[in-house]
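Supplementary Data S3. Sequence and structure tokens for construct A.
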Amino acid sequence: MGKVVNELSNVPSSSGSATSNITMDKDHDNISYTGQQIAAVLALMVGIWEVLLGLLQMGALLNVFLSDMLISGFTTGVAVHVLTSQIKYLFGIPVTAYSGPLKLIYIYIDVFRKIFDANPGEMLISAFCISLLVFNNEMKPKVKKYTNIPIPIELMVVILGTAASYYGQLHEVYGIRIVGHISTGLPAPSSPPVELLPRVALDAFIIGIVGYTSTFSVAKIFAKRRGYAVDATQELYAQVTA
């Protein structure tokens, strides 16, 4: 979704601003929209598509194509893409953005070319956080014998990382990239610019199908483990309400 917002808003991804005003031409009039407005209308269009698919009972048709082998391959592919997208943050190196066929290969070639430019500070933080998460995952079966209360290790890692970054001045001293200032509160409620619906219709359809496939794949995995059935069409409606 972020890629679509950047493409429609013509705001470079390096700007880091989700609220910057952008200008789009409509009937030869300049109308200013924010990235939040474009994201809102895109989410609205995704919901409209999924409602239509649900009314047409297309969930059952999609279920036919989502075999166990396809789901296994899909989730593995998603994991590879997610890992690849985080490589530049794990090593603290700038990676060129690629698209199209073989983009994963090009990304890893770029990573290996720049591996000696990696930021040692970011590598140490990445190694520490991953080690902590792996250790927690290995300790879960043992801890479960004594209590059913899960340890919020992910939240603890975020809190520890934020505290270490702030008090250790990691950005200033070691050049570690940080999110920066986050505005407090929520933006005032407003209706999305519905005049943009036709422009985002195709992208919204693709996002809806990919999003539904991802969530339904996870639902089928849990259903297989727990021994219950999932309603493909109901999952469409559930994703819309979410």
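Construct B, processed identically:
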Amino acid sequence: MTIKQKHRTYFLIPVSLQLLLLVIYLKIKEEYIQLIICILLVLSFLNFLFARGLFENSENIYERWYIPSIFKYLFITLLYFLCKKIAPNFLLLKSFLYLFIFIALDVIRISLCCTISKNFEDRLSTFYFNDLLKLEFFILLAVIEESKEKEKCKLKLLNYEKNIYSFYEKGKPDPLNVDLCFELWSNPSLSLKANYRLFVEEKLGMHKNNQGTLKDFSNQDDEFSTKNRKNNSEFIRKNELIKCFDIHGSFLFNSIAYLRAEESLDKTTFKENMSEILKERDAFFVSIEKTFRLINRVRLFGYIFHLVFFVSLMILYPSTGTLIFVFLISFCIYLVRPSLGRNLEASFYILFSNPYSVNDRIKYKNEVFIVKDMSFLSTIFQKWCGEICTINNETVSKDLIFNNMRSFSQQWEVSFLVSNKIDIKDFDRLRKIIKNYCASSNAILSVKINLNEIVDSNFYRLVIHVKHLMNFQSPFFMWLNQNNFMKFLLSYLKSLKINYIPIDKEIEEIR
């Protein structure tokens, strides 16, 4: 029997005891009722705490929320019954019907909050964000090596898990010295490898071999020690990272090199890429922080709405006879219904459709925006020029939005006018050269080349569609690959002596 199965078995024992005590309660004498109620209260409370702790890290939303909630409702019911026995005159709720309505509203509130939280959690744990969560292990390892407070950093790495909650709970991302990080990863030390074995390898869950325990390096020669490091190392090599981090070394190299086809990375390119990755890391933390802030607002609004709606039902209950109050409430609802409906529609669009998150890069009405903050009714965007604008969520929901960050890949179009005197053999050679270039690039998924339109009887329109492998919050990596592609394309147009006229955008030759 696994540990999980044992926990589930131990979890069912108190439940069976509760049911048994409830059966006994139906047949028990009245003088023992209070004792039985007290026992049920204690069992319900312990079950609630045990269930919440047991399923805290569970991926099943029903285990994390609904099972503990069942025991919470049982606890509320028993507490209500006990209060009714002890002080019936001071009890606000006069009937079990009110208690049932209260619990039903609470179930609806928790269901909505769980659905919204799960929706945002899934959005923030996909695509490049998932790689950032995994890359954080290696960044924390580098921070340990260069930090003076090693024990504190080790404790932070020990408590870190690959999820957005752990990423947020450890606080604002630690700064990283890029130069020292390059030296560390270009010549990995044995202490770095030992910390990886001790803190990281088991959490990533992908092992090259399962040795069970950490190997003792204390009496061995450190082949990667500081004394033997090459001070003139100018490259981070993929094979060295694989030696240090096993199969995860390949992931680390592809992340910091942005899927380059080469097996080594020079210091200049590393510093450029790493600075952008650290910006992505900081932006990811801000995105999680503002998303959690929005979720907390949803929970607060849920509690307020739950209380107000429940009290309103109690007041409007037919036995109270307050017909004037009923008329006033109905009239107010009729007046605010149109605006209330629009506001609810705008809020539900953000909370349930979740078209974007903070720091996403979107295209809205042919303009590119960065999402800076979100609320129930409006969203704050930033244009590339730095201009800040606020748009109502209802307005946004009426138009089409392209979310580059959430797309599997982004397509980029290059369009030229070439002379109709072009030799078809030269065009075929150009097509093969571009295909070979894109096939050898790990950053490009596919390319399509079309030459099937005549313009002004003297030109052909040459259209090239390049599809990237992935998207990023920062446009740096997109710009870098597009820049390299244009440099390559222009050089071969020149070598093949193909005359061209750019029509979509001005393209200057890169020297």
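Residues 128-209+223-285 form one domain. The CA atoms of residues 41 and 303 lie 24 Å apart.
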